[in-house]
Automatic annotation (TrEMBL):
Residues 400-452, 474-572, 627-758, 794-824, 886-1019 are annotated as: Disordered. Residues 420-432 have a biased composition (Polar residues). Residues 651-666, 975-985, 992-1012 have a biased composition (Low complexity). Keywords: Signal. Residues 1-26 form the signal peptide. This is ATPase. It comes from Veillonella dispar. It comes from the Bacteria. Residues 439-452, 474-516, 525-572, 627-650, 667-679, 687-758, 886-923 have a biased composition (Basic and acidic residues).
Length: 1019
């Protein structure tokens, strides 16, 4: 999992990261250190979802005025869930009103009602309702007793959850709650936010529907109770696993309709208001832990975990615990800005069946995860952190101390050279002093050579040690680089895996959104098409009805206009007749005056002729008056007959027009019934039948239009003919009247009076007849209108029932198609996810193999480095042991040399003493024999002087040697220069400068064999 790291562990890195980001860790376990991103998914499956949910969360922020927030129909078991913030200055209340829209009484049972605190702390409100939901669970048993019941009469309204009337929601405060009910029949529920003190039932009649916001969390859904189960048991031997809820993949969001928006499609994104029951089976052979892990953001709510023991002594027993996230545990919400927060939810044994109950808390975020971690993986005491510790002190590879005054000891090793350098006195002719000096010189040379060889060997060993250490460091660096590369490869693989998962999630989300949008668009298009078709049908029906009514109105208007024109023409004819009579009377009077004047002027001339002419005139007038009267009576009879014929024709035409209109209406009704029956019968061929129907209706409308135009044209022609006939008759009548007036001037007043009387009676009779006819026509039209209205209402009712049935059928088909499409999408997504998971698993396995290979190589290199260090340590220990042996051997050789020197000194002193005694003896003998002092001096002068250049004195050989732990020279004998590393010491003591009897070649050879001794200074 993790590569080698230098001196740092994961916990420190995570702590530093948290300190840099400012995130306060709320973790009961370090998920990253135990391989959180390699946990196996345990996808849950939907078992069932029941009951109706009326969700009221949009608009979430209510203002500047209140109103109806959400409304919908509940039938049977249902739940009302509200979640709103008051953004108004004054405190308001939440009111829930039920309306019985049916024609029968409806009984409603209130099973549970819960409300949270109203507070500006959104997490506190959502957390409070989540806790109360688990502390007061809904009793779902058949014998469950309701809190109270109420019976709502037909078209009646009733307020429920009356406690809300006394719960003010102040400005910027969040208030949420739920009500669970049971109904005998469909009931319409309204959720409103109203000012305190307002009558909710009265306000439900006129309160304005508030528009939905962009979140669109309101509407009527199916699935207030959701049962889910993990089909694959969690195996504790396979490592960590997780169950993810609320991701809209394995756990899909529920769909519904918003009845306030003409049943628009909506989704509960988060399944808020839904009660979950999640079962997780387990197996294996070790205990495990259950953790809560939020993924979508901050979460604060409660969960109940029931563990059914299926193994051991407690088999069959159940443990129930409730866990509260946020609030009392010191944090407002878990998972703010990270996906690695966690909270433990108990320890369990393998084989336990876990059942989790919860409802997504308001103000919290989804998805969430439940982590199942074996105890061996979760136990913090078994965590291991791999680190490389590089040794710091690598300077002294042979283990020599580095204190000041350290010197390389000189002397024989292991006593092998203890006998070397001794002089065989039997073969030597040198004096003992010379022999001693020679031995010391040879011993000094050999010791110097040994010291040089040891120093060279030590330098070689140090060089080899340095090379080994450099090689080991190089291998360690290569191992570190390889481990870092492996770590980078692992991180890259994890990042790639996370990126692929993110892309897959984004793709799935985009596909889901596209599918939802497409389905919504299709549903909206189908709905709009159905509404358009219904609207077109209604418009066509209304157009036909309007046409029919317009035709009737036009017919009535034409009839009334014709009657008015007839009355006006009669009036004008009467006025013209009266005017003509007046003019004729004036002309007659003028003619009479003229005739009287002419007659008076010619009376005298033609009295007889005047009398005769008067008689003839009177006879002619009588005859003409009788003929004119007969002719007028005949014309009046003909006019009366023509008028009666015209009226009969008009009545017949009106009757025929009425019958034609009724026939057209019946035909239209029959055609409409046939069309509706054809539409209901041929639903699958709706488009073709619709096109044919539209063509047929257009044709019929065209035919009706043409028939109407023909009828109008015929009526117009008939009217023109009638007007022409009336004009002709009026002209003939005028001429006849003029003739009659001219012929019957004297009887005109009586006739006028009679005619006026008769005309008045006829007018009154005609007016009475027309009034009776008008009343009868109005009554007939009123009866026909009422019958038509009843027919139209019945047809509209039947059409509405057919439309509702059709809409219900289409909605059901759309729902089934949507479910099939979603099932197919889920199947395709599952297959794609499985394939992608298999591919990712292969890639992950390959990455893990490569990481394992890199780790193996790093471990091999690290082991090689450790082996090299071990060998170097062994060589160093061996060198230390060898140096210690050599030091002890040198110390022993020095001790032996000192003993030998002491013995030699003792022998030398003894020899000197002997020689002195011998000299004294010889001197005594000489004194006895009497030699002089000069003779003695000659003896000393003849003695040859022997000197050894660069020889070491006995005092030098016998003085104490410096060891590795101390410096035996006095402080005043040390060199005063601190920057001078070595100083040459002349082995000659007492400043003696003997003459050199040897040649220069011998001197050079002696210098080579006896180099000057070097002592380190200032160390």
């Amino acid at each position: 999992m993790f590569s080698y790291k230098s001196k740092y562990c994961v916990a420190a890195a995570m702590a530093a990261m948290a300190a840099l980001t400012g995130h306060v860790e709320a973790r009961d376990i370090d998920l990253q250190s135990i391989g959180y991103f390699q946990f196996s998914p345990l996808p849950p499956s939907l078992v069932s979802q029941t009951d109706t949910l009326l969700l009221s969360d949009s608009p979430e922020y209510v203002g500047p005025v209140g109103g109806t927030l959400s409304a919908g129909t509940i039938n049977g078991n249902g739940r009302i869930y509200f979640y709103h913030v008051n953004e108004m200055d004054q405190p308001h209340k939440i009111a829930i009103v039920l309306e019985n829209q049916s024609a029968y009484p409806n009984t409603v049972q209130v099973m549970r009602q819960l409300k949270s605190v109203a507070t500006p702390d959104y997490f506190a409100a959502g957390r409070d309702l989540s806790r109360k939901d688990l502390e007061n669970p809904l009793d779902e048993s058949p014998n469950a007793r309701p809190l109270y019941s109420l019976s709502i009469p037909p078209q009646g309204r009733q307020l429920i959850f009356s406690d809300l009337e006394n719960t003010p929601v102040y400005q910027d405060a969040l208030f949420t709650g739920i009500v669970d009910i049971k109904t005998e029949a469909p009931i319409f529920a309204r959720v409103m936010m109203l000012p305190m003190g307002m009558d909710a039932i009265d306000a439900s009649h006129w309160a304005k529907n508030l528009p939905i916001d962009e979140i669109q969390l309101r509407g009527t859904y199916t699935g207030a109770k959701r049962n889910m189960e993990v089909t694959t048991p969690f195996d504790t031997t396979l490592g960590g696993a997780f169950v993810e809820i609320g991701n809209d993949r394995e756990d899909m969001f529920i769909n519904g309709v918003d009845e306030m928006q003409n049943k628009a499609f909506v989704r509960d994104r988060g399944n808020y208001g839904v009660s979950y029951t999640l079962k997780i089976p387990t197996k294996g052979n070790e205990p495990f832990r259950l953790y809560f892990n939020p993924l979508g953001g901050p979460y604060s709510g409660s969960f109940t975990v029931k563990a059914l023991h299926q193994q051991g002594a407690r088999r069959g027993q159940t443990d129930t615990r409730t866990y509260h996230i946020g609030g009392a545990d010191g944090i407002s919400a878990l998972g703010d800005g990270t996906i690695l927060d966690s909270r433990i939810m108990g320890n369990y044994n393998a084989g336990d069946l876990l059942t989790l109950n919860f409802m997504p808390a308001g103000a919290s975020n989804l998805p969430i995860r439940f982590l199942l971690i074996p105890e061996s993986l979760a136990n913090p005491q078994k965590h291991q952190t791999i680190a490389v510790n590089v040794p710091k002190d690598v300077t002294d590879s042979l283990g020599h101390p580095t204190q000041s005054g350290t010197q390389i000891p000189v002397g024989p090793i292991n006593g092998k050279d203890t006998n070397k350098g001794t002089v065989d006195s039997s073969k030597s002719t040198m004096t003992p002093a010379k022999q001693a000096e020679t031995i010391a010189h040879e011993e000094t040379k050999k010791l110097s050579d040994k010291a040089a060889a040891d120093a060279k060997k030590e330098a070689q060993l140090k060089k080899a040690k340095d090379a080994e250490e450099a090689l080991a460091r190089k291998k360690a660096e290569e191992a570190r680089i390889a481990a870092e590369k492996a770590e980078l490869a692992r991180k890259a693989a994890e990042a790639k895996h996370a990126e692929v998962e993110r892309k897959l999630a984004e793709k799935a989300e985009a596909d889901r959104k596209a599918a939802e949008l497409k389905a919504a668009q299709e549903a909206q298009a189908a709905k709009e098409k159905a509404a358009l078709e219904a609207k077109k049908a209604e418009e066509m029906r209304q157009a036909e009805e309007t046409k029919r009514l317009e035709a009737e109105r036009k017919t009535e208007l034409d009839r009334k206009a014709a009657e008015a024109r007839k009355a006006e023409e009669e009036r004008k004819a009467e006025m013209a007749r009266i005017e003509a009579a007046r003019k004729a009377e004036e002309a007659r009077q003028a003619a009479e005056a003229k005739a009287r004047f002419e007659a008076q002027r010619a009376v005298e001339k033609a009295a007889l002729e005047a009398k005769k002419a008067e008689e003839e005139r009177l006879a002619a007038e009588a005859k003409a008056r009788l003929a004119a009267q007969r002719k007028a009576e005949q014309e009046a009879l003909e006019a009366r007959r023509a008028e009666e014929a015209r009226k009969a024709a008009e009545a017949k035409a009106a009757l025929e027009a009425q019958r034609a209109a009724e026939q057209a209406a019946l035909e239209a009704k029959r055609q409409e019934d046939a069309r509706k029956a054809a539409e209901a019968k041929a639903a699958l061929e709706a488009q073709r039948i619709e096109a044919a129907r539209k063509a047929e209706e257009a044709r019929r409308a065209e035919e009706a239009r043409k028939a109407e135009e023909a009828r109008i044209e015929a009526a117009r022609k008939a009217e023109e003919a009638r007007v022409a006939a009336e004009a002709k008759r009026a002209e003939e009548a005028r001429k006849a009247e003029e003739a009659r007036i001219e012929a019957a001037r004297k009887a005109e007043e009586a006739r006028k009076a009679e005619e006026a009387r008769r005309a008045e009676e006829a007018r009154r009779l005609e007016v009475a007849r027309l009034e009776a006819q008008r009343k009868a026509e109005q009554e007939r039209l009123e009866v026909a209108r009422k019958a038509e209205e009843a027919r139209v209402a019945a047809e509209a009712k039947r059409a509405e029932e057919v439309r509702r049935a059709e809409e219900a059928r289409r909605i059901e088909e759309a729902r089934r198609a949507e479910e099939a499409r979603k099932a197919e999408e889920v199947r395709i997504a599952a297959e794609a996810r499985k394939a992608e998971q298999a591919r990712l698993a292969a890639e992950r396995a390959e990455a893990e193999r490569q990481a394992a290979e890199a780790k193996r190589i790093a471990e091999e290199r690290y082991q090689a480095h450790l082996e090299a260090e071990r060998k170097a340590e062994e060589a160093r220990q061996q060198a230390l042991a060898q140096a210690e042996v050599e030091r002890k051997a040198k110390e022993r050789a020095e001790a032996i040399q000192r003993v030998k020197e002491q013995q030699e000194n003792a022998r030398h002193r003894a020899e000197l003493a002997r020689q002195q005694i011998e000299a004294e003896r010889k001197a005594a003998q000489a004194a006895k024999t009497g030699p002089s002092f000069s003779e003695l001096d000659d003896v000393h002068e003849d003695t040859p002087s022997v000197t050894i250049p660069n020889a070491v004195s006995i005092d030098e050989l016998t003085k104490p040697r410096p060891t590795a732990s101390q410096n035996t020279r006095r402080r005043d004998q040390r060199q005063p220069l601190q920057n001078q590393q070595y100083a040459q010491q002349n082995p000659m003591t007492n400043g003696q400068q003997d003459q050199d009897p040897y040649s220069s070649q011998q001197d050079k050879q002696n210098d080579d064999q006896n180099p000057p001794k070097l002592y380190p200074m200032g160390q």
